[in-house]
Write a structure and sequence with these properties.
345 residues, alpha+beta, Jelly Rolls, Phage tail protein beta-alpha-beta fold, three-stranded mixed sheet, Ferrdict_sens_TM, FecR_N, membrane, FecR, transmembrane helix
């Protein structure tokens, strides 16, 4: 039995390392969920392995070099000579190019939880209770991809924040602000719910975007599959189902509106993934507001020309470049100042 438990711990450690490294493919995500559901001990072993990773991330004061020295001084404590072997680098990166702390983390994980914790002499530290919540955020003009523990992938847009709270029965994410794309790993027994204010978006396995901006309605764009949109605080408002190539608009006390949108429109709305802003006959005023989400350099538009429209694909972090192109196309002028660019007649 002990040998079997060791094997479970080792497999759990390998899965935790893959999930943390963001290297799970769709087929691997499905195999991971099947492994975890096959035996009640698997879920517990995986949770322990994740706890180890969290503690390692927080161990900045000790430092990777100190941990490496500790392990190398006590090689006999490992149950197998290869237990603490260096894993193969992911995404084609060389071991020399990886951050020492990341190398240390992956070494400990692949070795198996019990063996390497005993080697490091830190089991009591790593197995302390950890929070079931995680926060992820981006700054102004920043985008970030996060691979969650179930294999789901979240892409955060500029100035965005989410709080992840997973349990054995449900996967909950709260969008605090901004915008995020959710590519959900399928698991019908474990619903995936994104909350934005009082709106819940429920999915099983799909891809969708939720946007929560100041003084604007909540907007959900579905790229694949189907989602259910529910107003928690307004039971009189009928929940709706939104399928691929549709968007749901949730505003005030009004009914939830579902609209069909063409694939090219969806692509334009998601251009921010690639650091771009796609405009299609947008007014200069609306374009300036959109650019303000990505940069602290303001675009100020002369009210006399604010209604003029522009079409094109622009770098999200270059408001000055956009202003110059727009002025050239619309026969206007640009005046540059500190942290400001003006488009005038």
């Amino acid at each position: 039995m002990g040998q079997l438990n060791d094997e479970i711990d080792r497999t759990a450690a390998e899965w935790a390392a893959k999930v943390a490294g963001g290297s799970l493919s769709l087929s691997e995500s499905e195999r991971f969920e099947a492994w975890r559901a096959a035996d009640i001990r698997h879920a517990g072993a995986f949770a322990r392995a994740q706890a180890i990773l969290v503690r390692l991330e927080r161990l900045r004061a000790v430092g990777a070099d100190a941990l490496r020295t500790t392990i190398e001084e006590y090689p006999a404590a490992a149950t197998d000579p290869e237990d603490c072997a260096e894993p193969q680098p992911v995404s084609g990166a060389s071991s020399a190019a990886m951050h020492p702390r990341l190398l240390m983390r992956r070494r400990l994980m692949v070795s198996g939880a019990a063996a390497c914790l005993a080697v490091a002499g830190l089991a009591g530290v790593f197995l302390l209770p950890v929070s079931s919540q995680q926060e992820f955020s981006t700054g102004l003009g920043e985008a970030r991809q996060v691979r969650l523990s179930d294999g789901s992938l979240v892409t955060l847009n500029t100035n965005s924040k989410i709080v992840v709270a997973y349990t054995d029965s449900v996967r909950k994410i709260r969008l605090i602000q901004g915008e995020a794309i959710f590519k959900v790993a399928k698991n019908k027994q474990r619903p995936f719910i994104v909350s934005a204010h009082d709106t819940d978006v429920r999915a099983v396995g799909t891809s969708f975007t939720v946007q929560l901006l100041p003084e604007k309605p909540v907007r959900i764009v579905v790229q694949e599959g189907v989602v259910e949109v529910v107003r928690r605080d307004a039971p009189a408002i009928v929940p709706v189902r939104a399928k691929a190539q549709t968007q749901a608009i949730v505003s005030g006390s009004a009914p939830i509106v579902v609209q069909s949108i063409a694939r090219p429109v969806v692509a334009r709305q998601l251009a921010w993934q690639y650091g771009r802003i796609a405009l299609e006959n947008e007014t200069l005023a609306d374009a300036a507001e959109e650019f303000s989400r990505y940069s602290d350099t303001r675009i100020v538009v002369d009210p006399a020309v604010a209604g003029r429209t522009i079409t094109g694909l622009f770098a999200a972090d270059d408001p000055v470049g956009f202003a110059k192109v727009a002025a050239s196309v619309l026969d206007l002028r640009v005046e540059e100042g500190p942290k400001e660019v003006r488009i005038v007649r």
